[in-house]
């Protein structure tokens, strides 16, 4: 990892399937904390997960920019989009595949993978690529995972 | 599934297959296997996955490849396209 600023200028947050409610709350938490420190945040996910965010935050207090995941990945591969920090929320096998893809197409950037859900440990063990992992058994209650996220990013609770 | 959804495909492994299961299936069931990295372009889509991503070739005309969706996991699909087969043979790494 090289040239990583203390406060990232641009962050890319990749969301997985929205079936675990903790994800949405923590996505807002991460986006809010990055944004208030001056980071430009783009959230990418499938249309359902993006619509959940848009309906929950109609005036875009927390989430300003969103993009469909496939388009975002295409722009990164085609070097049209870059970031200093990439955060991937992962609670299933597919999301680990997305995290691996982000590692490969953003090899020099800080990558944080937040592994959660009912049984996060086996998923976390699938991660065999360089990244920072935050792992917690969170489905509905985001509080413990929020604490771990705050510790990794150096944010006050 | 974007462009891939519009292709005439067969699903070899169903919804919810893991990425690892798809790779193992391709490696075990096809004599001709090629490897690519995430972000490799196939049928105008960028392939997602843990590298190396295994692609099978069948009868010289069909490609077997994983296709990942956030909510469903990874599908293993088979699509007939001789031109794309030739492109894979020219640009991917062959299994030794």
Structural commentary:
The complex is a heterodimer of chains A (157) and B (96). With 157 residues, chain A is an alpha/beta fold. Helix content of chain A is 41%, strand content 20%. Chain A has one domain: Rossmann fold. Chain A contains 6 helices and 6 strands. Chain A has a 6-stranded parallel beta sheet, with helices on both faces. In chain A, strand 1 (10-14), helix 1 (21-36) and strand 2 (40-45) form a beta-alpha-beta unit. The mean pLDDT of chain A is 94. With 96 residues, chain B is of the alpha+beta class. Chain B has one domain. Helix content of chain B is 26%, strand content 44%. In chain B, strands 1-7-6-5-2-8 form a 6-stranded antiparallel beta sheet, sandwiched between helices. In chain B, a hairpin with a 3-residue loop joins strand 6 (62-69) and strand 7. Classes of the chains: A alpha/beta (157), B alpha+beta (96). Chain A binds chain B through residues 15-19, 45-46, 48-49, 69-70, 73-74, 76-77, 92-98, 100-101, 104-105, 126, 128-129, and chain B through 2, 18-20, 37-39, 41, 45-46, 48-51, 68-74.
């Amino acid at each position: 990892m090289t040239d990583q600023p203390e406060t990232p200028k641009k962050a890319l947050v990749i969301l997985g399937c929205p079936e675990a409610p903790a994800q949405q709350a923590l996505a807002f938490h991460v986006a809010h904390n990055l944004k208030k420190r001056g980071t430009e945040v783009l959230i990418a996910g499938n249309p359902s997960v993006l619509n959940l965010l848009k309906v929950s935050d109609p005036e875009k207090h927390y989430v300003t920019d969103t993009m469909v995941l496939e388009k975002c990945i295409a722009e990164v591969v085609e070097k049209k989009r870059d970031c200093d920090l990439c955060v991937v929320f992962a609670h299933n096998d597919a999301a680990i595949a997305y995290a691996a893809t982000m590692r490969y197409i953003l090899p020099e950037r800080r990558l944080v993978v937040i592994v959660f859900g009912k049984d996060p440990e086996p998923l976390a063990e699938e991660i065999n690529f360089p990244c920072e992992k935050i792992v917690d058994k969170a489905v509905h209650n985001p509080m413990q995972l929020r604490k771990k996220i705050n510790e990794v990013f150096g944010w006050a609770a | 599934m974007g462009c891939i959804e519009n292709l005439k495909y067969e699903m070899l492994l169903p919804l919810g297959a893991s990425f690892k299961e798809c790779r193992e299936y391709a490696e075990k069931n096809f004599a001709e296997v090629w490897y690519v990295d995430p972000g490799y372009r196939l049928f105008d889509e960028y392939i997602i996955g843990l590298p190396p991503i295994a692609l099978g070739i069948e009868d010289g005309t069909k490609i077997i490849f994983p296709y990942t969706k956030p909510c469903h996991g990874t599908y293993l699909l088979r699509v007939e396209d001789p031109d794309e087969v030739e492109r894979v043979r020219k640009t991917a790494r062959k299994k030794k």
